[in-house]
Amino acid sequence: MKLTYFCFEGTPQELDASEVVRELVQRQPGTVDTARRTPRVVADPDSDDFADFGWRVEGDVPGVADEGQDTVKAQLAFNPAAQQFIDFMAEAGSWESVGVHGIKRKTWQEGDPLDYSGYLRLRRKGSQYGGFAYAFASTGLINFRLQHSDEIAELTPDAYPLITGHRQYRVSIQVRDEETLKQALALAELAYSAT
Fold first, then answer.
1. How far is CA 86 from CA 118, 146, 194, in A?
2. Three-state secondary structure readout of 109-131
């Protein structure tokens, strides 16, 4: 398998307008994830200009506290697989004793809201472990509290081992479509059972 990875820096509008980025993406063989939903277009009240701010995310993101809804929806607005990510959260968040949490930053003090701008932590209430899954709404990337093995590779061919980060969270998958959603849910069940 050959993997080519590009990282471009710029605003979504700048990247959408870039002919260079468009040409590079079109030259790549195989599948390329592209957004297929209708963009949300917002009129600038100070001018007649229109700006694209991603896609509308209707309703609440399952399991996310009210204080984190706007932040998570803003991240999902630019995730081409937002619906599959929401489906993952709905299913895994519905399991017995599962809570979805933001994180406490180093400067967090009693009474401060949790931070939902990085990732969502899915945790089994009463567990002495941290979360069983860490989900990034902006990319659909989910890290699981599992060790990569031949069994996991066979069960979820799109999952891959992580070599950096916390030693307990060594399996990751990016939810891109219905197939990777099914694999992510299978990994989540394994991680949930282990915590």
1. 16, 22, 23
2. CCCCCCECCCCEEEEECCCCCCC
How far is Cα 165 from Cα 113, in angstroms, rounded to an integer? 25
Instruction: Report whether 101 contacts 116 (CB < 8 A).
Output: no
Residue 34 Cα distances to 3, 22, 108, 143, angstroms: 17, 11, 37, 23
CA atoms of 125 and 27, how far apart (whole Å): 47
pLDDT in tens, 144-195: 999 888 899 899 999 998 876 655 667 999 999 999 999 999 999 999 998 8
Question: How many C-beta atoms surround the C-beta of residue 66 within 10 A?
Answer: 8
Tell how many helices (H) and how many strands (E) occur in the chain: 6, 8
**Cα–Cα distance measured from residue 188 to residue 178, given in angstroms and rounded to the nearest whole number:** 15
Q: How far apart are CA 55 and CA 69, in angstroms?
A: 15
